[in-house]
Amino acid sequence: MSPTNKHVVFDVVGTLISYEAFFEAIESRLGDRLRAKHVGPRLFGYAWMEAGEKEYTYMTISGAKYAKFFDIFRSIFYRTLWQAGILEPRKFATDEDREFLLASYRALKTREGLSECFSKLREAGFTVWCLTAGDTERVGGYLAKGGEGFPSENFVSCDTIGVGKPAPETYEYILDKLPKEEREVWFGAAHVWDTAGARQRGFKGA
User: Fold this and answer.
1) First CA to last CA across the chain, in angstroms?
2) 112 CB burial (10 A radius; 0-12, 13-18, 19+)
3) 16, 84, 96, 100: which has the fewest Cβ within 10 Å?
4) Domain 5-17+109-205, CATH 3.40.50.1000 — does that match?
5) If 0-12 CB within 10 Å is exposed, 13-18 middle and 19+ buried, where does residue 61 land?
6) Strands (E), 71-197
7) Is the separation of the CB atoms in 12 and 143 below 8 Å?
């Protein structure tokens, strides 16, 4: 008999949600300026996001006071420009440019086929969960705008836990909500480090 205690937990941004709207905004707002400095717009966007995730993760596991990802992301905009070789980043770009790009990040869209994916999993008896480093309003809004209104009881933000992934506590927080008998739990993410962290706590990885 198949276990009925089946769950799949997804990372959200970058896994279920595409970054394309953000990259398009960088192209439209700063593309020509960046290329004039020999900086690829898409590469700048990737560097900004990766640096933001690194700073957020290191801050949360350092034992320092918890800071939300988006606050850290905003704070390193000019530093990322400087690291890209733009020596006077505050002359190159403005706070208005930064806020325009951050607004685009708040408007990211779901990947094609997401609703079909969730439907197939639920039809197979899985409860679908989300575990995100982003805030509930913003990231939950991505899913809702994509036509996938997500049950609040199955949506978990690291802001609630007070530490970011891949800290063991984040994955354990989900596991503690699930019955232990005949349990089948999967974790899905587009980046290996997240799945690796989940597997260390007892999840199967995808």
Assistant:
1) 23
2) exposed
3) 96
4) yes
5) middle
6) 109-110, 126-132, 155-157, 183-188
7) yes
- pLDDT (tens digit, 9 = 90+) per residue, 150-185? 888 999 999 999 999 999 999 999 999 998 888 999
To which residue do tokens 């988006």 refer? Answer: 70
Distance CA 68, CA 3 (A): 37
Retrieve residue 161's tokens.
Answer: 């836990």
Cβ proximity of 166 and 194 under 8 Å = yes
Give the tens place of pLDDT for each residue, 121-143.
999 999 999 999 999 999 999 99
Cα separation, 65 vs 48, in Å, equals 22
**Residue spans per domain, the chain:** 5-17+109-205, 20-105
Question: What's the whole-model pTM score?
Answer: 0.89
Residue whose structure tokens are 């260390």: 200
In the numeric block, the tokens 């008896």 are attached to: 125
Q: How many angstroms separate the CA atoms of 161 and 163, rounded?
A: 6
Identify the burial level of 150 via C-beta atoms within 10 angstroms of its C-beta, where 0-12 means exposed, 13-18 middle and 19 or more buried. buried
Q: Is the dihedral of CA 123, 127, 131, 137 positive or negative?
A: positive
Tokens in use for 135?
Answer: 């805030």
